[in-house]
Design a protein that fits this description.
alpha/beta; globular; seven-stranded mixed beta sheet; 34 strands
């Protein structure tokens, strides 16, 4: 490595000597790093340590050291994360791709084992458990048994990967949620290398789950990427990125009684979404950090994808060291973290100078009010007292297409056992304490337990139509709830343990009881879910639920007691006690002192040490599974879970030349905030969908379909599931919900998959037209892989979410943006036009390949053979990915 700035030095910790790239040396050379945000100091160290004159140059280092807060990002750097984090929904396709690369390497006469992760890779199996059984003591064991029955082949494949690849570890199912496991165990804060003269350096990572940012709460810089970028990082390739703008978020004060960390994060999410921080770093600072426990910081950091930032990071400080000690990290690790961070100027104290930021926001934490967010987006925060009004105001927009007005619907009768009841719009049918966002935080979990205790004491019970579940992110949660005696009260309210994993939040809520489902569907009811998660997008939680609200765990319990969302919990009673007296939420809400004292008495370091002592071992079911062997994977031709993908089959030694696009048709025309859940759903597979029909044709009964997320190792299922979300709205077929479109020019209605296959036979390329925030949500590479396999060559949108835009480029789909102020509607586009993208071939073969700016000749649009009888209207779009192309369309408004 080079050392242009003479920063290489030594750090001694106890009896150990470690090499470091010393940031203070740059201070001596005139750079004022004290004004640089902590997150950029971490990037700066990453470049100093890896300077080689090629991937990382002295100019790159100077660009970060001289960072201009107000400048538009333009300097590209090569960031190398220290490790890669996977979960099984996104990890299985990543390992499938690596296995396919080994096959391709072998076919080309190479050594398959050369395809191997060069960076540490850790995969946590957490997304496959579903809530089939609930409300009973046996729920955990029943759901676990079904999890292994459904996923045995996937788990066997991951066990093969664990043995076949170096630097690849797998945390077995039933351990916890990936981000909570990362926070409580995997996160190092400071990494150390191997060899005689090992380096010490900041722990950094990328992960194939967008909520990888949760680790930012521990002061570790990391964020979510698509599987394609993650695979490149695994194989030792740096991630190209522009030096970002950094928005500072000043916190002051402390939470008032009645408010929770969940309310705080919903407030922060709303503020930052309104500010606009897509593609930017967010860094938290201010006097409020002193009163913000690390678990609260992690809750805020977790939801960076919801507020749109690349990351939302807190600096390392005393709270970090305290948390490392609480969670059982070795004493020598804690000593190293403290010594390294202080030596490097990366340790925050009350006297640390305030950094310069691109922009700042401020929040007095004491002003935070109890809140929910919904019914469709995490940033749509609602004060608790306004939830009823908000739901009623939006009710008609939530009902199914063609359903009668809400005011004329009298609900539906249903029964479970001996209990009969009426369900109506606003009935809460799912109440789930779930997701790493909040189950990582003892204060809100204990708060839910204390509220349950008081509710049971007053004779309250959850409503019979509510599907309740409790799915913590680690076994430590059940340890401290059991020790405090609160788990028993949650059990009495039917919040029994259903599994350790990402359940309802990812769409693994499982089916509702059949009488409930029939009543909801038969009466076209707008049923509701309330969950302590981070995502509430349309169609994600359950196909029977049309309104989804994020809430703190105590409020999840409260709404399960009320059984409906159209209630003002601040003025209306939850129910009645045994004497018929009304019981109000404020009467059973735990005080801050109660919560704090219970947490202090019941959360112990020994719990973390015990539960993580054999984190990679697995239980009897996991260890009894056979492990396939060999350097290459023995693909099973009849498998419906894991299939050899087509990307690397017959791979040519050199790629085909890039060509212009002509005669393209619109596969879909969509509005704003189309999420990766809309594009590549993770939940249930309908029997009458293209994916369902495929599985039935291959001998899979509907009861064994599992979920789209679990089938991501099979491209045949996933391409059929693309745009198959039950709430997907395609403006080409405005009166239909789900994955349907028109095949043009004859305008025949069919499924998107069937239309795409017909277009493929006709050699017609495809585009998607979209509004703002296309690709919001999870870092789902299948939201790009699926459209690519369907033949989509470009997406033309008003704006893109960062991760999804990168995924599209990685799969050869061109992300194009309309000019500012223009849109599908303003240009009069209907989606019935033909589309052309010109200038790509010339750009790639000429100036673009030389790295020079390229401006193509003015594009032309050819008139479709029919449908128009007058002149042409041409619309030109500059390509946002620097590929040198224009999009030109005949708008069809004539």
């Amino acid at each position: 490595m080079k050392d242009s700035f003479s920063t290489l030095g030594e750090l001694r910790v106890a009896d150990r000597s470690l090499r470091i790239a010393r940031l203070p040396e740059l201070e001596k050379q005139g750079w004022s790093l004290g004004q640089l945000p902590f997150s950029l100091r971490i990037l700066l160290e990453n470049l100093l340590r890896r300077e080689d004159g090629e991937a990382v140059t002295a100019e790159d280092i100077e660009a970060v050291a001289n960072w201009d807060p107000r400048a538009t990002p333009s300097q590209e750097i090569a960031f190398m994360p220290a490790r890669v984090l996977l979960q099984d929904f996104t990890g299985v396709p990543a390992v499938v791709d690596l296995a396919a690369m080994r096959d391709a390497m072998q076919a080309m006469g190479g050594e398959p084992k050369e395809i191997n992760p060069l960076q540490p890779v850790e995969l946590v199996i957490d997304h496959s458990v579903q809530v089939d059984e609930y409300g009973t003591a046996a729920a955990f064991l029943i759901n676990k048994e079904k999890e292994f029955e459904r996923n045995r082949e996937r788990y066997g494949f991951l066990k093969w990967g664990r043995s076949a690849f170096d630097n690849f570890k797998v945390v077995p199912p039933g351990t916890g949620i990936v981000h909570q496991v990362n926070l409580e165990y995997l996160g190092r804060v400071v990494m150390t290398g191997e060899g005689d003269e090992p380096f010490a350096y900041p722990d950094t990572l990328v992960g194939t789950d967008s909520h990888t940012t949760m680790i930012n709460g521990l002061g570790i810089l990391g964020w979510g990427v698509g599987g394609i970028e993650a695979e490149a990082a695994m194989l030792g390739q740096p991630i190209s990125m522009l030096v970002p703008q950094v928005v500072g978020f000043r916190l002051s004060g402390r939470l008032a009684a009645g408010a929770t960390a969940t309310d705080l994060v919903l407030t922060v999410t709303q503020m930052l979404r309104e500010k606009g921080v897509v593609g930017k770093f967010v860094e938290f600072f201010g006097s409020g950090l002193e009163h913000l426990p690390l678990a609260d910081r992690a809750t805020i950091a977790n939801m960076a994808p919801e507020y749109g930032a690349t990351c939302g990071i807190f600096p390392v400080d005393q709270a970090t060291l305290t948390y490392l000690e609480l969670t059982g990290r070795p004493a020598e690790r804690i000593a190293l973290v403290e010594a390294y961070m202080k030596e490097q100027g990366l340790f925050h104290t009350a006297s640390s100078p305030e950094a310069e930021y691109t922009d700042t926001l401020e929040l007095d934490v004491s002003t935070v009010e109890p809140s929910l967010a919904g019914p469709k987006r995490p940033q749509d925060r609602i004060d608790l007292g306004d939830v009823k009004r908000s739901f009623l105001d939006q009710l008609d927009s939530l009902k199914p297409p063609g359903a009668e007005a809400a005011s004329t619907n009298g609900g539906a009768r249903a029964s479970l056992g001996d209990e009969e009841f009426t369900l109506d719009h606003g009935s809460v049918v799912i109440a789930a304490i779930t997701s790493c966002t909040n189950t990582s935080n003892p204060s809100v979990m204990v708060g839910a337990g204390l509220l349950a205790k008081k509710a049971v004491g007053r004779g309250l019970m959850t409503r019979p139509w509510v599907k309740t579940s409790f799915a913590p992110g680690s076994k430590v949660v059940t340890d401290y709830l059991t020790e405090s005696g609160l788990q028993g009260y949650l059990d009495e309210l039917k919040f029994n343990l259903v599994g350790y994993g990402c359940t309802t939040c990812i769409g693994n809520s499982g089916p509702l009881r059949e009488p409930i489902s029939e009543a909801v569907r038969g009466a076209n009811l707008v049923a509701v879910s309330v969950l302590s998660g981070n995502r509430n997008f349309e169609g994600r939680i359950s196909p029977d639920v049309r309104a989804n609200y994020l809430a703190s765990p105590p409020l999840v319990v409260a709404y399960a007691l009320a059984g409906r969302i159209d209630i003002d919990l601040q003025t209306e009673p939850l129910g009645q006690d045994r004497d018929g007296n009304p019981i109000y939420l404020e009467e059973i809400w735990p005080s801050p002192d109660e919560i704090r004292e219970t947490v202090q008495a019941s959360v112990h370091s020994e719990m973390f040490t015990r539960e993580y002592s054999e984190v990679y071992a697995g239980d009897e079911q996991w260890n009894a599974m056979p492990v396939p062997t060999g350097d290459t994977y023995a693909w099973e031709p009849d498998s419906t879970y894991v299939k050899l993908p087509p990307y690397f089959v017959d791979l040519p030694p050199t790629p085909d030349p890039v060509a212009d696009l002509a005669g393209a048709r619109a596969l879909a025309v969509v509005g704003d905030t189309i999420t990766t859940d809309h594009i590549s759903p993770a939940g249930a597979i309908k029997a009458d969908s293209p994916a369902g029909r495929y599985l039935i044709e291959h001998g899979v009964a509907p009861k064994d379909f599992n979920s789209y997320g679990s089938r991501r190792g099979n491209h045949e299922v996933m391409m059929r599931g693309t745009f198959a979300n039950v709430r997907f709205r395609n403006q080409l077929v405005p009166d239909v919900e789900g994955g349907f479109t028109l095949h043009l020019p004859e305008a025949e209605t069919m499924t998107i998959f069937d239309a795409a296959m017909k277009y493929k036979q006709e050699a017609v390329p495809l585009v998607v037209l979209a509004g703002k925030e296309y690709g919001t949500g999870s870092s789902r590479d299948w939201a790009a892989k699926g459209p690519s396999l369907l033949g989509v060559r470009a997406v033309i949108a008003q704006s893109f979410e960062r991760i999804h835009r990168s995924n599209l480029v990685g799969m050869g789909i061109l992300p194009l943006e309309f000019l500012p102020g223009e849109s599908v509607a303003s240009l009069g586009l209907s989606g019935h036009e033909e589309y052309a993208i010109e200038g790509l071939a010339a750009g790639f073969s000429g100036e673009f390949q030389k790295g020079l700016p390229y401006v193509p000749a003015a594009p032309t649009a050819r008139r479709p053979p029919s449908n128009h009888g007058c002149g042409w209207i041409h619309h030109r779009r500059r390509c946002t990915t620097r590929m040198g192309g224009y999009c030109s369309t005949c708008c069809g408004s004539c």
